[in-house]
Amino acid sequence: MRVEGKTFEAAMARLLSLLSFSSRLLESEGAGLFAVDSDCRYMFWNPVMELITGKTAAEVLGKHAYDVLPFLRHTGEDAYIDRSLAGEFVSSKGHRYTVPETQREGYYDGYYLPIKGEEGAVIGAAAVIRDITQRHLSEGQLRETESRFRNMADVAPVLLWMAETDSLCTFFNQTWLDFTGRSLEEEWGVGWAEGIYFEDFQKCMDTYIAAFNSRRVFEMEYRLRRRDGEYRWILDRGTPRYSPNGDFAGYIGSCVDISDRKQLESKLIKAVRDRDDFLSIASHELRTPLTTLQLEIESLMRSLEKRPEMALASGRLAQNATVANTQTSRLITLVDELLDVSRVASGRLEIHPAELDLCELVNEIVQRLRAALEVAGCPLELAMHAKAIGVWDKIRIEQVVTNLLSNAIKYGAGQPIELRVTAEQGTACLRVTDHGIGIAPHDQLRIFQRFERAASTSNYGGFGLGLWISREIVAAHGGSIQVESAPGAGATFILKLPLRIS
Ligand code: ADP
Questions:
Q1: Which of 54, 173, 239, 276 sits 20 to 30 Å CA-CA off 438?
Q2: Minimal CA–CA distance to 193: which of 210, 172, 211, 178?
Q3: 490 lines ligand 1 (CB under 6 A)
Q4: Secondary structure of 275-339 in the HEC alphabet?
């Protein structure tokens, strides 16, 4: 209902001039301003409203709000206008609008206030409209960029984290959460550090804080608990982040599981150490017979220079030659062992099987080592079947048996040695028993590995290769080699060979 009269017109004129004044202020910041009378007919429409809706003041003034802009009803905006006409201050946020005639679309915020007459009655409503289309779109883009980043981060095969300027972590990708089996809430802030292995914790924190304070790129390695409870080695690389205006915004970091690499690294380090140890043992081992050989040859030359007939007659020459020959054989054995290492390592160990009797072979070897058994003071007890005929590589099996018997002499000097050969159920079995220093249970598997030795280097020479090579030879024949022993109680090596290689 319109209130007519002079007072009303004067009040209206004052109101319109007030609205024009406010409009100029609002226009400068791109805000629209309109006013409706108590019948909801437009009575004020500023130029920014024209820009927003595409409707001119001439097109809207005096017309009913919802007739001019029907979308106000569809968006529920009519309720806000009605409420302000009822005397309320109300606002609407982020509403979408479409002006069908102009195809104009966008988003706006609206602030509605009642206009009151001198008696305090509501005579209309004014509204300030801000077109927030641009802001809405860029926020949308930002949201989209962020969700794209999260999607990418979550499927990345690396563990990702992000920290704010206060060094507290506020983001962990799904890969991280899957790895630790914890929730974002549990990892949030410094929660993630609970999973660090206690020994690595301090160093890790020191690196992290120092890098943060100096805004440096950092790299650290630590053990992190995986969801199954296993600690895995992690390589964590952190890089400072900066906002578009160059302000420090925190850190982003990526982590990879390097446990397998670490394991390989330590294996390589051990292999290099083993090789160095081996080189020093090998040079020492080769040096010993060489020195003896040299002494014998020098003695031989001196005898030949001075009185060769006497040296010959006294048997001195023959003795020199025998020792020189023994040392040469020792050298050949050592060099052969070294050659076997490369053969076995490169899979070039060849087996040439032929029929042979293990009992006969053992007898031959015993004859060859008779002198060594005597020197070492080892009486030999031999127990053999009449025959143990199989198809094997004679040279290689000879090498294995010689190695077992030589070890028994070396590590069981001064004590008896027993050799037993049996052949039953398709398998030939040789047991070599000594009563020497024996082998501790924890060393019994290890000694079959390359370069592994259990006896003291200063008391017993050797490369730590004989048993390894023997095991490879026996394996190539489809057989096995084992030891039964206790420290100080001697050792029994049991060699089993199938009579025929399958
Ligand atoms: P090497 O005798 O040259 O060291 P081997 O491979 O033949 O190399 O033996 C490996 C290790 O096994 C030896 O260093 C020794 O510690 C242990 N071993 C081998 N045979 C015996 C044995 N009969 N009694 C005690 N220890 C033995």
A1: 276
A2: 172
A3: no
A4: HHHHHHHHHHHHHHHHHHHHHHHHHHHHHHHCCHHHHHHCCHHHHHHHHHHHHHHHHHHHHHHHH
